[in-house]
């Protein structure tokens, strides 16, 4: 791993910038090739992720692996990160936690320089859209729609997608989400 990425991981593992550190067993920094062309951004670790210190290894992760295959992607070739790096009970996140944690994600993006960033769910979309001053939009209107991002530091395509957990919470959404990932194959 690039030294800077390793240093960043160490900072995350020792981070006490918000109260979530008290409830974590393992920080979940993120994983994948440091030169990945595609980065995925989810919300934050659940129970299984906290136990293992790895992103998307629970039920949503199993589904994500399948969805990635629909898009013609292997999990090993993408970098998987989250907005929040410590166990998030019930996936409830506050503005302050996002403000404390996202400088780590910003640095990950800067170091990995992905060409495509897949935003999983509303929290990731809201954070990245606000950061890059893209207009507010609803997931139902923008899922699978690519947005071009061009800044001094990063040129990338942003693609909002429903969070895989949405298909688990709402089985009625599952086939639409599966279709979205099949469509993604033609967009990538
Ligand atoms: N959900 C997320 O958003 N991230 C994970 O790492 C696991 C579940």
Descriptive account of the structure:
The protein is of the alpha/beta class. The protein has one domain: 3-Layer(aba) Sandwich (Uracil-DNA Glycosylase, subunit E). The chain is built from 8 helices and 5 strands; from the N terminus they run αβααβαβααββαα. The structure holds uracil. Uracil binds next to helix 3.
Helix and strand arrangement:
Blueprint lengths: L2 H11 L24 E5 L4 H6 L6 H12 L7 E5 L12 H18 L3 E5 L1 H10 L7 H4 L4 E4 L4 E7 L2 H6 L4 H14 L1
Parallel strand pairs: 1-2, 1-3, 3-5
Antiparallel strand pairs: 4-5
Helix pairs in contact: 1-4, 3-8
The structure holds uracil (URA).
The site of uracil (URA) has 13 residues, from helix 3.
CATH class: Alpha Beta
Mean pLDDT: 97
CATH superfamily: Uracil-DNA glycosylase-like domain
Our count of helices gives: 8
Order of helices and strands: HEHHEHEHHEEHH
CATH topology: Uracil-DNA Glycosylase, subunit E
What is the total tally of β strands? Answer: 5
What level of helicity do the residues show? 40-55%
Structural class from helices and strands? alpha/beta
Distance between the termini: 25 Å
CA gyration radius, whole angstroms = 15 Å
> What compounds are bound to the protein?
uracil
Major sheet details: 5 strands, mixed
CATH architecture call: 3-Layer(aba) Sandwich
The largest beta-sheet arranges its strands as 2-1-3-5-4
**Segments where pLDDT lies below 50 for 5+ residues?**
none
- Give the CA-based shape: globular
Strand content: 5-15%
What is the domain total for the residues?
1
């Amino acid at each position: 791993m690039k030294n800077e990425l390793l240093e960043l991981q160490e900072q995350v593992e020792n981070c006490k910038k918000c109260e979530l550190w008290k409830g974590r067993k393992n920080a979940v920094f993120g994983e994948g090739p440091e030169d990945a062309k595609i980065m995925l951004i989810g919300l934050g670790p659940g129970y299984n992720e906290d136990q293992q210190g790895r992103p998307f290894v629970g039920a949503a992760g199993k589904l994500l692996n399948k969805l990635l295959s629909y898009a013609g992607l292997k999990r090993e070739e993408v970098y998987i990160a989250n907005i929040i790096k410590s166990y998030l009970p019930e996936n409830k996140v506050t503005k302050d936690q996002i403000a404390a944690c996202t400088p780590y994600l910003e640095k990950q993006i800067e170091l990995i320089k992905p060409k495509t960033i897949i935003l999983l769910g509303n929290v990731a979309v809201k954070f990245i859209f606000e950061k890059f001053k893209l207009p507010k939009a609803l997931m139902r209107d923008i899922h699978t729609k690519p947005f071009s991002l061009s800044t001094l530091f990063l040129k990338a395509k942003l693609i909002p997608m429903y969070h895989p957990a949405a298909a688990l919470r709402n089985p009625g959404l599952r086939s639409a989400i599966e279709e979205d990932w099949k469509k993604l194959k033609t967009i990538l």
